Amino acid sequence: MKKKIALVMACAMTVASLAGCGGGSGSTSTTAAAGGETTAAAAGGETTAAAEAPAGGGEANLVMYWWGNQVRNERTQAALDKYCELNPGVSIDGQFAEWNDYWNKLATMAAGQAIPDVLQMDYMYVDQYAKSNLLVDLKPYIDNGTLDVSEISENTIASGTVDGGVYAIAAGINAPALLYNKTLLDENGITVKDNMTMDEFFALCKEVFEKTGVKTDIAYGIANSWSEYYMRSFDIVPFGDKKMNGDETSWTPFFEMYTKGLEEGWLLPPDVFAEITVGSVEQTPMVYNSTPATQSWCEFYNSNQLAAMQNAAPEGMEIGITTWPAPDPKKSAYLKSSQFFSVGVHTKNEEEAVKVLDFMINSSDANNILLGERGVPAPADIAAEVAPQLSEIDQKVTAFINDVVTPNCSPINPPQPDGASEVYDLLNRTVEKVCYGQLDAATAAAEFFTEANKIMSSK
Fold first, then answer.
1. N or C: at which end does the chain have fewer Cβ atoms within 10 angstroms?
2. How many alpha carbons fall within 13 Å on the CB side of residue 24?
3. Which of 323, 294, 11 is nearest to 192 (CA)?
4. pLDDT reading at 85 higher than 90
């Protein structure tokens, strides 16, 4: 147990180098009590461990911990206030931190056996925390009806499942999404269909290039999720137990798409990316570059980034949304939790903590306050109820998730193991070599597979 916690702490300390969802600086605490007011602790205050005893004579005193921005903080606390109003005798200490601090402090709590009662969890860490016995298995509460998942798809539930137990419930849903310059394509009579095959996508790229001169960006420099999505079509989950699945030829088709696009002229050359920040919404070739030779008609992002991409787009450009292409669209497509809610194993009020989680997920009272800030609500009925209150863009995203992706997807891959980030760094470097003509596709596939296996076997 101590060894597992130490590994969690070590992993959490490395997260400072990763991009994440930022919130306020430091850790802040607010308290919701039955009928009481919300008060903010001094900025930079310490995050409290899971509550051991009721406060002020109450029947249950809980801690809920999350990361996020100011809008999330205010809406979440208001929802907790509502729960306490509806459940006299319950008080909830709402605490939050910005992304990096969150994981560092949560790791410290884990080592001190003081995980909060209810907490926000990320797909990157759910496997580690569950296997370290730090999260409550929610399946018994699902089975006895305390936690209602009847309106949540099986694929979504599977994303929080580890070794047969359910350790996390999606707080919001997103999906891989091809965001595209709808204005450009409409003006040139070009249509985009959902669930494109790769051949259909390649034909579309050629059509756009021939009619407009605008090229295509296929996740250059950010091929992590895209490569995993692509390989799912061949029934390959990239990562096995300290090894890469497949063989030296498995990745050849992946690299061939880049050589094909460069040979046919419709793929952006790598030098276009030398002067921009790869991965920045504001500097994607679709919205940042203005000449056809340096502009892309599409970008490989996620559904919850549509609003940010539209905000970054030049005036008069409408951004459309569709699925990523794939050799087998249904095999490749998946729904992903934007983040989860979990119950900490050290809680002294386990059943009440599960009830709070259920309230945040399933209650109209809570979700009419939260308004999908964490993503499209996981329960279909709540998503439909909240949708009319959302902005036009958020309603478009909700329709995309419910009507396009949900009926045509497969369960998400297991969480990525230790070493995955190094493998993906290698992959992006290999794609770069292919695009600069230093490697052909077959050689790139063989070299990548060999070096990736070395990385994984060392973990």
1. N
2. 18
3. 323
4. yes
CB contact at 8 A, 69 and 22: yes
The residue written with tokens 């799912």 in the block is 232
- pLDDT of 393-444, one tens digit each? 988 998 899 899 989 999 888 878 878 889 999 999 999 999 999 999 999 9
| Tokens 């190094």 found at | 422
Residue with tokens 């001094």: 42
Spatial distance between the Cα atoms of 230 and 328, rounded to a whole number of angstroms = 9
Would you state the torsion angle of the CA atoms of residues 18, 123, 303, 95, taken in this order, to the nearest 10 degrees?
Answer: -80
Closest CA to 304 of 196, 391, 202: 391
Its pTM surpasses 0.85? no
DSSP for residue 59: S
Q: What's the start-to-end Cα distance of the chain, in Å?
A: 19
- How many CB atoms are closer than 10 A to CB 364? 11
Ramachandran class of 4: left when φ > 0, alpha when ψ lies in -120 to 50, beta otherwise: alpha
What the block records as the tokens of 98 is 């910005």
Q: How far apart are CA 142 and CA 161, in angstroms?
A: 13
Torsion, CA 432, CA 435, CA 441, CA 444, rounded to 10:
-20
* Residue recorded with tokens 């091809």: 178
Pair of tokens at residue 183: 């204005």
Asked whether residue 11 carries a pLDDT value surpassing 50, the answer given is: no
Q: What residues contact residue 347 under an 8 Å CB cut-off, 6+ apart?
A: 50, 62, 115, 116, 117, 118, 136, 353
Quote the pLDDT of residue 28: 58
Mind listing the pLDDT tens digit for each residue in 224-253? Answer: 899 999 999 999 999 999 999 999 999 999
Copy the structure tokens of residue 410: 């497969």
